[in-house]
Amino acid sequence: MKIAFISLGCAKALVDTEIMMGVLKERGHFITPSLQEAEAVVINTCAFLQKARRESDETIEEVLSKGKKVVVAGCYVNWERERLKKKFPGVYGFLGTEEIEQIEKAIKGEEVRACGLYLPRWNTPRVTSTPPSWAYVKISEGCSRRCTFCIIPKIRGPYRSRPIQDVVREVRRLEEAGFAEANLISQDTVSFGTDRGENLRGLLEALLRGTEKIWIRLLYLYPSPDLMKILPLFQEPRLLPYFDIPFQHSHPEILKRMGRPWDGRKYLDMVEEIRQKVKDPTIRTSLIVGFPGEGPEEFQHLKEWLKRAEIDRLGVFKYSRERGASAYGLGDPVPDEEKERRAREIMEIQAEISSRRLTLMVGREEEVVVEGKVREGVYFARSRHFAPEVDGGIYVLGEIEGPRARVRITHAHTYDLEGEPL
To answer: Least buried of 28, 60, 258, 309, by fewest C-beta within 10 Å?
Structure first.
């Protein structure tokens, strides 16, 4: 059967999509990028925010209107399976995140049933959909934090880690297949192994011992003292000095309401310690504007914090009141127009910071992972300073071969660089 996939949401969901494609391909099905050619379409949904659920609804409606056999999978099914069944009676099957390896049953219309909490394994069938130079590696599932704005623990379940050697075998297999970069992802990477008597440091040491050339990048690092304990490991060049730490806010009262640790002053100390102890680090964060209780004073605090922190990469989210989150009872007092204005203001500050920090890189020589050709004579690549999909990158003017190459940075823009091959 020819089957097409639509993957919505985050990188963790994309890995689930790749696993479903791998299972189907192993069993003789053909994965097609064409919805028109497909006999069936699998839509892997997101349910993290209202906006994501609306996008999922619209995508399901659109594909159903084309007369295709549709299977709906992912977080949205975990969250509202029965409601989705009633809303979309034309959907052929529903598949939650604990059931993804049963995708063939769903395609055939057979009953699907979760068999406990799910974790992928190193030899789980998978078809990578990222460029051939890099891949995601999901090292855990679920989350046991209690951020008041978030429903992920209720959707994905409690935090559980894969065994260290299982992750090492997967990354080694990627390296042997020619991948140049492994991006380790989870809901809470810093907590890796805490449920198994292991820890993130042990994982990183095992990965560095068990592989030879592949870059290792950590994403989704919860701000925690445990993060500071692994800083000495970043002396190893293959462990990329990229710190993706979702601070979310700076004002102590807002952070308390969010159920987040510490305050902006402590976060500044963390940023400073990273920059003192790690050579040439890149720091990325995400911030939420418009959380209940964020008035002019709290928002001004956030702006001043950002100017002092000089974060390299930044994503801004407008607070979304989610039924099921413990902050739901706080209401949603900040109007959407004001949230939008605050988000723009934050990004205006960040644009100046980003432009200034990227300008400092002009003239440097960088090793890059080549993602592919943009057009004739122009390639897109990323150095250790840019994570895939969420950051900018380097537009290389001239012919370049991957998966790795060296370039000289020639120009800086607000979020991207230009370079030439060496």
So the answer is: 28
State phi, psi for 364 to the nearest 5 degrees: -80, 155
On whether both 332 and 197 belong to a single domain, the answer is: yes
Taking phi first (over 0 means left), then psi (-120 to 50 degrees means alpha), and beta for anything else, what does residue 90 get? Answer: alpha
Q: Would you say the C-alpha torsion 295, 297, 303, 308 has a positive or negative sign?
A: negative
* Whole-number pLDDT of residue 278: 98
Residue 115 is assigned to a structural domain of this protein:
no
Q: What pLDDT score does 300 carry? A: 98
Please report whether residue 116 resides in a domain. Answer: no
Let me know whether 342 and 241 are in one domain: yes
Instruction: Give residue 100's pLDDT.
Output: 96
Report residue 4: phi and psi, to 5°: -105, 155
The answer to whether residue 113 sits within a structural domain is: no
Dist CA 68 CA 6 (whole Å) = 13
**Amino acid letter, residue 221:** L
- Residue that the structure tokens 């020589």 belong to: 365
Closest CA to 303 of 347, 268, 259: 347
Note the pLDDT tens digit of each residue in 202-251.
999 999 999 999 999 999 999 999 999 999 999 999 999 999 999 999 99
Q: Note if the bond before 246 is cis, omega within 30 degrees.
A: no
Q: Which residues pair with 284 in a beta bridge?
A: 244, 313
Domain limit, last residue, from 359, 374, 406: 359
CATH number of the domain that residue 206 is part of: 3.80.30.20
Residue 262 φ/ψ region, left for φ over 0, alpha for ψ in the -120 to 50 degree band, beta for the rest: left
Confidence of residue 62 (pLDDT cuts 50, 70, 90): very high
SS3 221: coil
Number of domains in the chain: 3
Distance CA 57, CA 88 (A): 9
